Amino acid sequence: MQNDIKIYNSLSGQKEKFEPINPGHIGMYVCGPTVYSNVHLGNCRTFMSFDMIFRYFKHLGFKVRYVRNITDAGHLENDAEEGEDKIAKKARIEQIEPMEVVQRYTVDFHEILQKFNFLPPSIEPTATGHIIEQIEIIKDIVEKGFAYESNGSIYFDVAKFNENNHYGKLSGRKVEDMIANTRELAAQDDKRNPQDFALWKKAEPQHIMRWPSPWSDGFPGWHLECTAMSTKYLGEQFDIHGGGMDLKFPHHECEIAQAEACNGQSPVNYWMHANMLTLNGKKMSKSTDNNIFPNEIFSGENNKLSKAFSPTVVRFFMMQAHYRSILDFSNDALLASEKGFNKLMEAIGQLDQLQLEKNTIGIDIQKLKTACYEAMNDDFNTPILIANLFEGVKFVNLIKDGKATISNQDFEELKSIFQIFVFDVLGLEKTSTGSNGEADTLGGVVDLLIGIRNEARANKDFATSDKIRDELATLGIQLKDSKDGTNYSLK
Ligand code: AMP
Ligand code: ZN
Q1: How many CB atoms lie within 10 A of CB 125?
Q2: In this structure, which residue's CA is closest to atom 15 in ligand 1?
Q3: Protein residue with least CA distance to atom 7, ligand 1
Q4: What pLDDT, on the 0 to 100 scale, is given for residue 186?
């Protein structure tokens, strides 16, 4: 199976046979979050896509070194060029240390990812922990003539680089068009050309996050941290680099240029980009209000939602789309995913009660298993994988209804298909979901009480029904009655 994987490479715009540099080993780098605010569900989608890919590679037996950084410095408001550092800005507004901002949102990021059942990456380096490495890379690029100093800042010389290299090969942009499209020349006095980007910025007196360097007290450009950390932990050339589509330009284009300027070779063999999660047809983003936060979904506390949904249902919703397709978030879509997820879990829950005999017609477990691997090997096609898993659900239901039988051996295979693909690869979790999707015993208990309350109301025993509602409320469980029945949310 390891030999058959095809990956869509953003650099060539094609699916390519995956050939790791060292057979059996994979180096994978994914740009991590900028920790100046809570992660929204869109951010989670990109990281979840790579968690699924990491899981699949591990399942196939690859030794994967998965590096996902934390951006805790140097990410400016305006694509790494102008404006205030986003973390410093938050620190100024809240009157706390920048590192308090970083800590708060790194903890939030980890908590959310844990709820979604992410595997931890092999290394999670921080930008501020690698300032020395970044300075060394800048020195190297300056020495090789691809960067210049201007008033204590260092800029990458795109025109010089482009003489013998191709700046724009990932994003498909042309340097000439970039120049033509740049209006704000006045704001970029320090630069020779508007398309040049900062490797090091001299800090203004009020800029809090600053480090000494040969050029000035300042801070590194955003693109540089990923070049420094990926090179340090994965080498000058490694297998896979990932991130969201919106990072192709300028971030990844600049990473390629920096690494090629230093090492004279392309740093990454396969560039992978996950597509955006949208809300109302528009990209979810931190800078606008067009977003939703995972905890709002888990508690149901958002007026876009009719109820709460468990993390694993949200994960299933994400996995139902291919990672390169745009996915639109909505309450209805989550409701539909929850139904599908419950069906899948019901079938898995019934596995152990099946009657085992010899196979009767129509059940070909080996074919099913092959189809699951083929889907994943075809650029990690999780929607096709899930469609195949529902073929498995059909088998279970046929056998349960006495319309087919399965041999002991095939039964074990079927069980292992569900284990591998549902739990190990997709990262879903077995749950008995309550009416609001709460993924544990609590869900069942609250549903039981909702049932008793409904009976009491039907019998006009309002004392009992009110007592159940009020006592649940004092425990922080809020019942919500609607025309579709009763749901609950957790305070
Ligand atoms: P940031 O913290 O803004 O640097 O973003 C972290 C990751 O989330 C990056 O890989 C982005 O490409 C990705 N991302 C941001 N918005 C979305 C979205 N709406 N859908 C999917 N991924 C996103
Ligand atoms: Zn990056």
Answers
A1: 21
A2: 43
A3: 43
A4: 44
What is the DSSP secondary structure assignment for residue 33, as one 8-state letter?
Answer: -
- Nearest bound ligand to the CA of residue 225: 2
Q: Counting runs of H as helices and runs of E as strands, what totals does the chain give?
A: 16, 17
DSSP track, 72-97 = -S--EEETTTEEEEHHHHHHHHHTS-
pLDDT of residue 444: 72
CATH class of 2-274: alpha beta
Q: Is 424 in the pocket of ligand 1 (CB under 6 A)?
A: no
pTM of the full predicted structure?
A: 0.89
Which stretches in the chain have pLDDT values below 50? 79-80, 183, 185-187, 436-439
Decide: 196 and 158 in contact? Cβ < 8 Å. Answer: yes
Domain spanning 278-425, CATH class = mainly alpha
Q: For the chain, what is the radius of gyration of the CA atoms?
A: 26
State the virtual CA torsion across 105, 110, 112, 113 in degrees, nearest 10: 140
User: Can you tell me which atom of ligand 1 is nearest the CA of 245?
Assistant: 12
Q: Which atom of ligand 1 is nearest to the CA of 246?
A: 12
| Joined tokens for residue 174 | 């042309």
Provide the pLDDT for residue 80: 47
Please report the pLDDT score of residue 437 as a whole number.
Answer: 47
Q: Is 290 in the pocket of ligand 1 (CB under 6 A)?
A: no
Q: Taking a C-beta distance cutoff of 8 angstroms, is the pair 183, 73 a contact? A: no
Side-chain-side CA neighbours of residue 47 (13 Å): 25
Task: Mention every residue, 6+ apart, whose C-beta is less than 8 A from residue 477.
Answer: 446, 488, 489, 490, 491
**360 CA distance to ligand 1 middle (Å):** 49
Query: Measured from the CA of 34, which atom of ligand 1 is nearest?
Result: 2
- Please give the pLDDT value at position 353: 82
Q: Which ligand is nearest to the CA of 29?
A: 2
User: 101: which 2 tokens?
Assistant: 């901002």
Quick one: pLDDT at residue 252?
A: 98
Ligand nearest to the CA of 250: 2
What residues pack around ion ligand 2 (CB closer than 5 A)? 31, 226
pLDDT at 442: 75
Beta strands in 277-373 (DSSP E): 277-279, 282-283, 327-329
Judged by DSSP in three states, 437 sits in coil
Q: Where in the chain is the domain with CATH 3.40.50.620?
A: 2-274
Residues of the chain with CATH 1.10.730: 278-425
Distance 133 CA to ligand 2 centre (A): 15
Q: Using a 6 Å cutoff on CB, does residue 194 contact ligand 1?
A: no
For the CA of 45, the closest atom of ligand 1 is: 21
**For residue 285, with 0-12 CB atoms within 10 Å meaning exposed, 13-18 middle and 19 or more buried, which class applies?**
middle
Determine the Cα–Cα distance for residues 449 and 431; give it in Å rounded to an integer.
Answer: 19
Ligand 1 atom closest to 242 (CA):
10
Sheet with 218-220, strands from edge to edge, namely 147-150, 153-156, 197-202, 218-220
